[in-house]
């Protein structure tokens, strides 16, 4: 058995049965091993940022890591942006990267690059295999690292000779350390602050955004008259009827500061105290008041649900009914607005839908109007690296077993980063409806430019405008095997959305906004 | 004057007047400065690997650096693969990357990443600006570094506050150190080896592949009865009538070893002794005989043309007429073959064409059949990171002033990495004819798989086949504003090529092979 075969056996023993891939020559022995050993579903992405973004979406919905298979050096580099997003989502990924044979590397052949150096900033764990005999053991540790709470990227670099040499030994799955239990002192402190102080905000992130956690946070807040909010960018929020009508910290700096100015105490549940996505001249970097006290109920690696359970018990907080979001809205009509699109979505999405949201500037109003939708999951771009939404939607569809409708709310400029995702959706016949929010410009940047103090002139617009020529999303989608149609009104968009949800296939709606 | 304005003024003073860009929020003050200060041509790429690949092509044809403008962290990461190729081409690029404000970085906002760490492996020079007052001086050093022979990537990281703070001071252009003059000892050694030894190969790379250098190398070889060859992957070769009928070291390992097995002495002119692109089990990593002696006539940073001139003088080698390549071929007919396509190209390409070659497996026979074409330049993928050809063609068209026809011989799998290039070609109305070599598979990898010892089974083919669904290149090109047509025979391809060369616009031919 060679090293590559021991790797595949070990991944399967460790419960990793899906591999998102774009291999090259140095990975051919691994490809051959995948071919010979049954049990791994291999999904091709036509560029590595599709591959890594799919692995992120897969984890978010399945809560288990997929493997990636990336080509040495530049292949990894192509996938770094979505690994960055995955790191910020705290997704677990077994990130397998081929490399030059150990003895070939010193010769500095054309494709030789600093694979390990590029991997390190996005990885919680990095190891370069150096011996076929140890590849199995290395892989078992990689899976363990990827699954260690809250989830992290474990990069295993596989020089070609460690794949092709004989002597591979499959390793058994290693135990996954359970999430750290909450600190009783932190629970007592949070309870005391909630009971005794005014203007306390419970800020939820990560696992704290699952429905169970929301219900517990709501009980704690109701019992003490305090408030609950979600972080700005979240890997996965369980939403819709039966969940909390949770709002997020807003993205625009002035709105964020305004929304948090009342806070005297901040209790963090698997969350981070809010800071700006970017700095702006003369504006604070931290978005909560300087005088606010920050209390950590649970850190990322801790079990936030257990922490909230302990908090509720410490408070003796009674059961509290979730607030009623009101009736399910009707689909909206007329010219597309963010609120209208959100109502259409709330009206028409099937129960159990997954929303992959890379709507950028257009999407800031979506949240509020979808509280009364059926239960669904909402996935966001977590690291700000655009080009996340389409691969995320693709991977989420696979992670959810292909049985749940994915609706990708997708800004056009960001879509052009990873449009190749559509081809994988067509090949795998995934139930993904992409709604391209087609404004034919980098609208968020035009807004940022205006913040700088002027309207963009011709040179600036040459870098901010996506017209000239206009992108034709119907042809782009059709070129990759995805059926598509254009909508200029919300009723057209709603009809196309409903129609696409009835088919077990991908579909793209270009919504002209 | 703010830091960003001092940066733009300094770039213009230093002769940098073209900026390939995809900015984000942290670069908005730089965008505003470009807007206010006339003189910089800004060219938008819809993903950063387009941006960096264009800057590479621009340098190869113009021999001066362009600036890039990339977004912090993940934006840079998206462009690393083509920076890797540019590094291997030894192209000069002033690689400007925005970043979080200096005081915001420690807060680890979502988009914060290890910008400097990612830049370092591809850069010859890296600096993070820390003060608006110093940005001008930093930029002048960056341009000097980019232009230092043979050319290198100089990465200047620009935290947002160093762009927006006042106190910027434009800096004057710094002198560019001339390429190091050749070592007289190396010249004497090379002359002695050429005169006294048998089986000597002069291997040309870099500047040694310009027409002038070829003529000198040919004189030296003719005077001593020795041979001349080019490296396998070259940034730019001047070719066609009046140039040497130069062959390259072959890519496949067995062919490379066979072609070099006679070599007893290797004289390197801005080249590297040949090693395999990859290692293969049981095959040597070095492709020249172990017993061969290696002599360096000129290193990368040295003036190879001056070194060859000195060599010719040392040898007292007489003028030598370039061998006649024979008559210009007629266009080929019938089913597409590599040789037939190359003959069609040689028959129809306008004088002064630029060939951007990312033909991968199909293109290995192109070189031999194009010696009798009119004078032209041939650009290759130098670092092996696929997705180079289309941005390279785009940037080369701009670097050549928009007056020369660029013909991009483009493998389909690689094309899907950076297809967004077509949009920039349409927007800038560039004279680029893309010939997609559409075999609907990663053919090179299927060959590599078979080398591993078997035919690929269904799982392997799920990662190596690009069918299911077939990519429709006419729709993909049309979706980005580029006219396109399909050819299934060489005469159709020839007709479309000739027609496209008569228009000052991009065109795409899907050649079904």
UniProtKB/TrEMBL annotation, chains A, B:
Annotated region (Disordered), positions in chain: 319-338
Domain Thiamine pyrophosphate enzyme N-terminal TPP-binding: from-to ranges: 1-106
Listed GO biological process terms: small molecule metabolic process
Transmembrane parts of this sequence: none
Stored Pfam families: TPP_enzyme_C, TPP_enzyme_N
Keyword presence, Cell wall biogenesis/degradation: no
Signal peptide: none
Keywords on record: Thiamine pyrophosphate
Family: Belongs to the TPP enzyme family.
Alphabetical list of PANTHER family matching this protein: ACETOLACTATE SYNTHASE LARGE SUBUNIT ILVX-RELATED, THIAMINE PYROPHOSPHATE ENZYMES
UniProt-recorded name of the protein: Acetolactate synthase large subunit
Organism in which the protein naturally occurs: Teichococcus coralli
